[in-house]
């Protein structure tokens, strides 16, 4: 869907963070994601990059412009960019001067790196006492591994995430996207929003700290608690669910489909009206979800046998008629160009200097309207 852009950083009083100014000193993914979320919500975000090489991600992914790539574009919409060499006294002094006019700073230097540049919280608070300063590190800044650089893949392994991903018997497997980085950036944006709200009442700034490792542990969620309760790793279920049965990817006569039977009433309709096995709901082994989970090795083969007798279109029609959540398994490109995605407005297409640029839109809707892509990810601005 073609989109038109508002002038970069044009104030819009209807946007929730209109008037908030964010100085993005971060690079790669978690920090830029945090700043982009704030920009999506209406803040003016100025990204500070090295004037020659820019953000590392300008060299990652597929080229989308002279200084832009798909990776960079994915986390830097709704920002402008300036080139500043922070390692020079002049560059650091410029940032200290600029911060007087900003509400938020986001940085992800290695622990102690910002302080060595004269850009740590203590130094910038002297310039702006109401500043909200958000630091993202690999590991806790007061812990024994504070000096270690943090990378998503390392934390996925060290937090146990790779051990819960994939099929039983498979080697440890990372998530398809940098899940720890993305969650950390989202957590950071939430914390900044909370600090802005508090400052509106107290006038005081805050220092926020998040580490990739802490966020990696946090997103183990119910799997993490199950491991603690059992005193061992929970089984890996691949596309199935540890607690809900039947749930996952199943093969119809002509290909895969997704089925998620969420409660006992749905299970009854699934058995009697979809796969036409009237006896299954009355079997004590399958009467409740807890029992179905315990006896999945008996139940799932029966379900698989029945599903393979029917086409996907036939199954999806009946499943939807019966109010049982079900869907297709699409390729990534197929999903992004689907009618469903087009109707959602989640993919925006722009003509930029004679070239087509695609940008994923913010997922937020306020009062029925999706928040806009106000400016494309910026080109690198040389000094």
TrEMBL record:
Signal peptide: none annotated. It comes from Roseomonas gilardii. Its EC number is 2.8.3.-. Coiled coil: none annotated. Pfam families: CoA_transf_3. InterPro entries: CoA-transferase_III_domain, CoA-Trfase_fam_III, CoA-Trfase_III_dom3_sf, CoA-Trfase_III_dom_1_sf. It comes from the Bacteria. One of its GO terms (molecular function) is transferase activity. Keywords: Transferase. The keyword Transferase applies. This is CoA transferase.
């Amino acid at each position: 869907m073609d989109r038109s852009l508002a002038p970069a950083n044009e104030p819009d009083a209807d946007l929730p963070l209109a008037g908030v100014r964010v100085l993005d000193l971060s690079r790669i993914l978690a920090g830029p994601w945090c700043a982009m979320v704030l920009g999506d919500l209406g803040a003016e975000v100025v990204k500070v990059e090295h004037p020659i090489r820019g953000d590392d991600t300008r060299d990652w992914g597929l080229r989308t412009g002279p200084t832009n790539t798909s990776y960079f574009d994915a986390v830097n919409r709704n920002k402008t960019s300036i080139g500043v060499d922070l390692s020079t006294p002049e560059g650091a002094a410029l940032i200290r001067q600029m911060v007087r006019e900003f509400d938020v700073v986001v940085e992800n230097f290695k622990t102690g790196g910002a302080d060595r540049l004269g850009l740590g919280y203590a130094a910038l608070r002297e310039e702006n006492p109401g500043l909200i300063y958000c630091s993202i590190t690999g590991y806790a800044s007061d812990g024994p591994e504070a000096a270690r650089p943090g990378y998503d893949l390392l934390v996925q392994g060290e937090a146990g995430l790779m051990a819960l991903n994939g099929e039983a018997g498979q080697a440890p497997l990372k998530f398809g996207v940098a899940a720890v980085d993305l969650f950390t950036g989202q957590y950071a944006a939430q914390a900044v929003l909370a600090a802005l709200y508090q400052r509106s009442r107290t006038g005081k700034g805050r220092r926020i700290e998040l580490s990739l490792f802490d966020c990696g542990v946090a997103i183990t969620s119910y799997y993490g608690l199950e491991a603690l309760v059992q005193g061992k790793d929970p089984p890996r279920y691949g596309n199935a669910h540890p607690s809900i049965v039947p749930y996952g990817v199943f093969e119809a006569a002509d290909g895969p489909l997704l089925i998620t039977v969420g409660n006992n009433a749905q299970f009854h309709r699934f058995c009697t009206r979809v796969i036409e096995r009237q006896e299954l709901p009355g079997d004590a082994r399958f009467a409740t979800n807890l029992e179905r989970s315990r006896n999945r090795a008996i139940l799932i083969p029966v379900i698989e046998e029945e599903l393979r007798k029917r086409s996907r279109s036939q199954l999806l029609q009946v499943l939807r008629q019966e109010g049982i959540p079900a869907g297709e398994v699409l390729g990534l490109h197929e999903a992004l160009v689907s009618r469903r995605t087009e109707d959602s407005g989640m993919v925006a297409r722009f003509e930029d200097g004679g070239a087509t640029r695609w940008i994923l839109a913010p997922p937020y809707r306020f009062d029925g309207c999706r928040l806009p892509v106000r400016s494309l990810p910026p080109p690198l601005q040389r000094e």
